[in-house]
Amino acid sequence: MNSWNKVLLASVIGLLVAGCDDASKVDANLDKAKDSAEQITDAAQQKADQLTDSAKAKAEEIKKQAAVQADQLKDKASAIQSDAEKHAHALTDDAKAKAAAIKTDASQQSQALVEQAKTIKNDAISGANNLTEQAKAKTEQIKNSIEKKTEDGQNDTTPSTEAPANTQNSAAQ
């Protein structure tokens, strides 16, 4: 994400240093900045979706492993049950407790990964939106500066045109 920030910042600085001569260049650069911001937003959305999918897949895998482990522990408890009923009950209770703990842990890890993915997604989208707003503001500043310079340039040419007319009027008097 930092590289995109640097690219956008370099683009804005490049525009400021080079100076644009007409508003169409500014509009084109604004469109480029908007496209870049949209690409960043899309990339962030895709990355967040990938992280969410990955978290869900990991959670499913952990749940399956927990179920397999629970089944294995239950099988061990059944085999021991033929030797001693008391000993078998203790192993079954232990197996159930471990299975519940593994399932709880898997669920907590899954939820944490999903929340982390959502946070990353929201942060990425927020950052992309901020960059878009900054790019718009910088572009607007550049556009206003160009318009002001254009107006100043027109104002500079107007007095010089009027000066000879005044000189002629003075000479006529």
From TrEMBL:
<feature type="coiled-coil region">
    <location>
        <begin position="30"/>
        <end position="83"/>
    </location>
</feature>
<feature type="compositionally biased region" description="Basic and acidic residues">
    <location>
        <begin position="135"/>
        <end position="152"/>
    </location>
</feature>
<feature type="compositionally biased region" description="Polar residues">
    <location>
        <begin position="155"/>
        <end position="173"/>
    </location>
</feature>
<keyword id="KW-0175">Coiled coil</keyword>
<protein>
    <submittedName>
        <fullName>E3 ubiquitin--protein ligase</fullName>
    </submittedName>
</protein>
<feature type="region of interest" description="Disordered">
    <location>
        <begin position="124"/>
        <end position="173"/>
    </location>
</feature>
